[in-house]
Amino acid sequence: EPEVTQTPSHQVTQMGQEVILRCVPISNHLYFYWYRQILGQKVEFLVSFYNNEISEKSEIFDDQFSVERPDGSNFTLKIRSTKLEDSAMYFCASSSGRDGTQYFGPGTRLLVL
Amino acid sequence: EDQVTQSPEALRLQEGESSSLNCSYTVSGLRGLFWYRQDPGKGPEFLFTLYSAGEEKEKERLKATLTKKESFLHITAPKPEDSATYLCAVLSSNTGKLIFGQGTTLQVKP
Q: Residue A6: exposed, middle, or buried by beta-carbon count in 10 A (0-12, 13-18, 19+)?
C-alpha cells in the first residue's frame, strides 16, 4: 500500500540554525501539506502546495518557513532560523484531490535547543 | 470561525465494553469529515471519510456516523489494541486545510 515517508525521523538542532525536513508523498497525489503538532496540542495546519506553488498558508507559516518540490518525488519544509517554539512533530500529508483524504507520514520530531 | 470539539478527552474501557466518541463541528460549508487514529509518536492514520449527513462507514469494530452538527465514532467490543488517540478533522468550503479537534485518548484494558 502506498504511503507517505518522511526523513529524518528525529532532528536536534541549535536555535538559529536552518533545518530541512523531507517528505516523499504518495506518487500519484497532486496536493501536498505540512502540519505540526506541539506536544500535547492539536495537529495544526502550516501550508498547502499544489501545481508548484503555495495554495494556502497559516499565520504560523511566516518568512522563516519555505516549501519546495525540488524534483518529481520530494517535498521539503525549510525553517531558516529555528526558534525554541519550533520544537514539535512535523507531519507531511498528501491527497489526490482538493477534497480527497489527506494521508499523513510518520512525522519528524524536531527539537530546538 | 471553523471549529472542532471532541469529547470526552479521555476514555477508559474494559475489553468488550462498547462506547462512542463525539466530534462536534462548526464550519462554513462542510466538504468532508475525517477520522484518524494516532498512536504515540506516530502520524495520524486514516480511518474514515464522511461527506454528508446520514452517511455511515464501518471498519471492523469501528463505525462512524455523521449529522449536520456532529459525528460519532462507535467502538463495538473494543480490544486492547484499539487503545490510541482518535482524531476528528473537517474540511470546510473556505479552505483546503484540515481543522483538527484535540482528540479522544482511548485506553482499553484487558
A: buried
Can you spell out the DSSP letters for B39-88? -TTS--EEEEEE-STT-EEEETTEEEEE-SSEEEEEE-S--GGG-EEEEE
Measured between beta carbons, which residues in chain B are less than 8 angstroms from residue A101?
A: 32, 34, 46, 49
Q: Give SS3 for A9.
A: coil
- Min CA distance, B100 vs chain A (Å)? 6
pLDDT band for position B28 (50/70/90)?
confident
How far apart, in whole angstroms, are the C-alpha atoms of residue A35 and residue A89?
Answer: 8
Residues of B with CB under 8 A from a CB of A: 31-32, 34, 36, 41-46, 49, 87, 89, 91, 95-103
Give the integer Cα–Cα distance in Å for B10 and B21.
Answer: 10
Q: Is the Cβ pair B96, A103 closer than 8 Å?
A: no
pLDDT digits (tens, 9 = 90+) for B54-97: 999 999 999 999 999 999 999 999 999 999 999 999 998 878 89
Give pLDDT tens digits for A49-100.
999 999 999 999 999 999 999 887 899 999 999 999 999 999 999 999 988 8
Distance (Å) of CA B55 to CA A12, A74, B21, B87, B97: 44, 36, 16, 18, 22
